[in-house]
Amino acid sequence: MSSNNMSSNNMSSTDTSAAGTAPAAGAGASRNARIQWLSGLACLLLLVVLLFANAILARASVRIDLTEEGIYTLSDGSKSILNSIEDPARIKVFWHRVPLTFAHTKRYVAALLEEMETASNGKVQAQWIDMSEDAGVAQASELGLEEHTFRVRHGSELRRDTGYMSLVVEMGDAQPEKINALANVQDQLEYRIVSSIFKGQRAAPSVVAFIQRLPNPMGGQRQQSRFAHLEYQLFQTLGRALRQRVTLDRPIPADVDVVILADPRDLTPQQVFRFEQFLLRGGRAIVMLDPLDRVGVLSPQVDVVRSASSGMEDWLAHVGVTVEKGCVVDFHEAASCFYPYEIRDRQGRTLGQDLRRYTHWLKVLPANVDPTNPVMRYLKPMAMYWPAAVSVDQEKQQAEGRKATVLATTSEQGHRRADVTNLRQPGFSSDGKLLEKVPLIVLVEGPLTSFWADKPDPTAPPPKAPEVPVPPDDADPKDADPKGDAPKDGQGAEPKGAFGSPDGDDPAPKDAAPKAPKKDEPKKDDAGGDGGDGGDGQDAGGPASPDGRLTQGSLRLVVLGDADLGTTSFGPAGQLALWNGAGGFPFVQNMADWLSGSEELMALRSRATNPRNLTQLEEKDRDLISYLNLLLVPLLVLLAGMTVFIVRRS
Amino acid sequence: MWRDVATVYRKELRAYFTSPIPYVFTALFAAFMAWRFFFEDDTAFFLFDKADMGRGFFFQLERYLIVLVPIVGMGQWSAEVGRGTIETLMTLPVRTSSLVVGKFLSAWTLILVCLLATVAIPITVSSLGEMDWGPVYGGYLGAFLFCGALLALAVWISSLTQHEIVAFVLTLVAGIVFVGMYELADKVGSFFGPVFEQLSLAAHYQSMGRGVVDLRDLTYFVSFIVFFLYLNAQSVENRRYR
């Protein structure tokens, strides 16, 4: 502004002189040229000053995050964790040949890391690796980072370029945690980094085993599991602490702390026994049960839905929990989910897809969860698909000194539907139905006496047949067993159940060796190994029977009446999340974290954004809204203009 | 100085809103944006079934503002020259800087009215679902500053010519360059790439569209506006010596 004033002052003097005596034309031109030269110089100076100011302020990360959930700001949970870490951590960022259309991701990563450095009081240090030198690329390659493929437009051509968009979290001697394709995981980046640092602080993170019902092999080729996406998510967050090949055909390895049992079907007594032994030795579990066999339920050809057996019913009854037959519906408008309905023409050709409210897919609402449980407290909208009611025998729990907590229910407009035929039937109404809060998720904690405490060990080898007496000379030799050791019953000859090893020939657990005790957990002096089904850690649990199996222990078990919340069977994960809530996967992950004592991470994971579906409207209402928007405001503006015009004319 | 600015601002604004053109212009703009948002296939709101303006709306807005702003800015000085009123204007007892700022603010207000005419869209969206207003606030703030920057460029270019059409075309080209730099940044190498990105209006505008108001973006827009208004003042000033 000062140079502007200067120009104005000069101009005034010029005017004065012009009004007075006529100066020589040459002198005037010279003065004008000088003024214009000074004006140009002032512009240049201003440009330099502004560029300098921008360069200085570019270093200051001052910003206001206006989003409701503060998704571009480090959460309080992260700050708390980072503030409390003891060992330093280094985060190396490899950003190379990334198209500048990802500049926002880069800016977000940079801001996030800056905040992490501050929150950790310098314990976390971020380093952007110089990738202009070959050394940077070599380092990325050495660390095993994946090159990301980008599609870049070159003129009218779309080419594929590769580059690095990864980071590595290094903590002391621990294996570095690699996070590739940062743009794809931007929503989870804060959680991934902070959880890596958090887990790196612990000598040995809790181990989670994911045991799922695998699809039957067809034609020698294995189909992808419907839990593949959940498994991938678990692997993304747990990394090496996830055991994916654990089966119930063998004892659960001694280092496993938490088991997630997804959709068990027709488990044999031996498999249930091994699961119980795991619980009795101090293991914790999430059991996701699907009592309805609803393969193809969305298909027009399937109207009758069969019941399916998990094989755990008797054992669960022993624990005091019953997963009821049938399915639960919720008539509360906010609790019903969206169902992808195919629009077909008269010839049956698919014209498109529409979404309709469907009371058999229900949403667990915050008002219907137990807020004292941290997992439920942080729960985001979570869809359950044809869930079953999970009822608890409270008297039995009290009598046996256990505590059963209902973690989630339907709304007051829930209903137990016993008749499960024609589930796709539209217009299933609440008229004349008994409406109540129906329990959907239950937590049972406390002492447990083994279901097999007074029964023979189902996994024990069959008793040897009594020695066959030497037949008398006149006996028929065909009546005698020549070897004399053939099993007499099927108890010891365990068939491979649905929860058998993925390949059917799974080797002995590789992870059965005892591991180092954790900083925050008492040492478990596990026996482990294959030395018998009862030998998987008896010392950590209650008393063992003479044959080595545990008969008493402490239980911590979560039972859900739905396994589909961990699947993407009814549409891609993104779409499901968009329609019905992204809470299913985070719920399982959070529950696993909580059961393994890592509550701190829950608040971070639950920062995923809420689905923001529209209120469902009829086609004509949509059109009305669209046309109102198209016409109303312009008409109002024109009306205002006409009013002004008329007033002026009058 | 600010009293003079306010005088010029009021005079210009009165001139705008006593003419029917801004009303028609605003109505057309609001209708066009609503049509794009609710009816066009690539952005059709109901198709996505999400109570979210997304970045789509503000991305579209950016494209149309590149055209709208030059229309508002093209006549700021060139029309005065064309009508021969510039001499009268220069004899007014106010500083050139006050004239420049007053004219700029009044035109910016007109654009703000156009932007506000589209607010019915987010209000509709929020009435149909639980919308996060953060990105909407950020988007509108970004759009307002984006318009300010483009308008400062437009009024400067307008001061360089006496033909409104020339001013419009030049501003349109300059706007496309300043926005397109963001796209070009990928193709100009690792040294110029970040420079192009930093200079691009689109990068800063889109950053605010996420719902994050960053001091760096604010600094950029303010610097851009100040620089071109200064150039404008110098350009008008120099006219006295021709």
Q: How would you describe this structure to a colleague?
A:
- The complex is a heterodimer of chains A (650) and B (242).
- Chain A is α/β, with parallel strands linked by helices.
- Chain A has 3 domains: 76-187, 3-Layer(aba) Sandwich (Glutaredoxin); 207-456 and 489-605, no CATH class; 617-650.
- Chain A is built from 15 helices and 22 strands.
- Chain A has helices at 2-19, 25-57, 76-84, 103-119, 134-142, 189-200, 228-238, 269-280, 313-319, 374-377, 394-399, 573-580, 584-595, 602-605, 619-649; strands spanning 63-65, 89-96, 124-128, 148-154, 157-170, 177-179, 207-212, 242-243, 256-262, 284-288, 292-293, 306-307, 321-323, 327-330, 336-344, 350-364, 382-385, 390-392, 403-409, 414-417, 439-449, 552-560.
- Chain A is globular, with a radius of gyration of 34 Å.
- By secondary structure, chain B is an all-alpha fold.
- The longest helix of chain B is centred in the middle third of the chain and has 28 residues, at 133-160.
- Chain B starts with a helix and ends with a helix.
- The model of chain B has no long low-confidence stretch (mean pLDDT 87).
- The chains are: A alpha/beta (650), B mainly alpha (242).
- The interface between A and B is large, with 72 and 73 residues.
- β1 of chain A pairs antiparallel with β1 (212-214) of chain B.
| Strand content bin of chain B | under 5%
How many individual β-strands of chain A?
22
Distance between the termini of chain A: 45 Å
The helicity of chain B comes to over 70%
Calculate Rg of chain B over CA atoms. Answer: 19 Å
Helix/strand-derived class of chain A? alpha/beta
Average of per-residue pLDDT values of chain B: 87
The average pLDDT of chain A is 75
